[in-house]
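DM from R.C. (forwarded with permission)

"hey, sorry to bug you on a friday — could you get me a structure for this? deadline for the figure draft is monday and I only need the backbone to look sensible"
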Amino acid sequence: IVQDLLSYARVPKPSLEETDLNALLDQIVDFAAHHTDMDAVDIVTAFDLRLPRIWVDGDQIRQIAMNLMLNAGATMPEGGRLTVGTQPGADGFVKLIFEDSGSGIPPENLEKIFEPFFTTKARGTGLGLAITRTIVEQHGGKIEVASEPGRGTTVTVTLSAKREPA
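My reply, with the result:
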């Protein structure tokens, strides 16, 4: 809990490097697939090969992706499917998409999920998505969630492909 609090309070400025997001996400998916919370989850990738290389902090993108994948896995304890994909977006943006077949998020919770300390998990701190949103915003991006109870959740992270190193 203390480590999560420190991470939230001190999210460092991104250290940008030109990155192949497809390759980075492929490594993260491989790592996540071996996590015990993902045993019953079938992880599928849908990477768009036209995706340009972009300037991001690879470690912070890893943190975002792992958090979103483990959150998805937690909604599918009996098994399910998680699709991790990329797409070129409009106006020089790229999209990272995490789509699960889990339990979904009730509408009354959807607006609260990025609030610090909001959690529905018995052992959660409620800081994972708050940190995720901070990192995305520090990259000049945005994060959106669409969910339907009983049908799953789609999280879309949109990042600029035009960003140059600072």
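R.C.: lifesaver. Strands lie at 17-19, 41-46, 54-56, 80-88, 93-100, 142-148, 152-160.
me: no worries. The radius of gyration is 15 Å.
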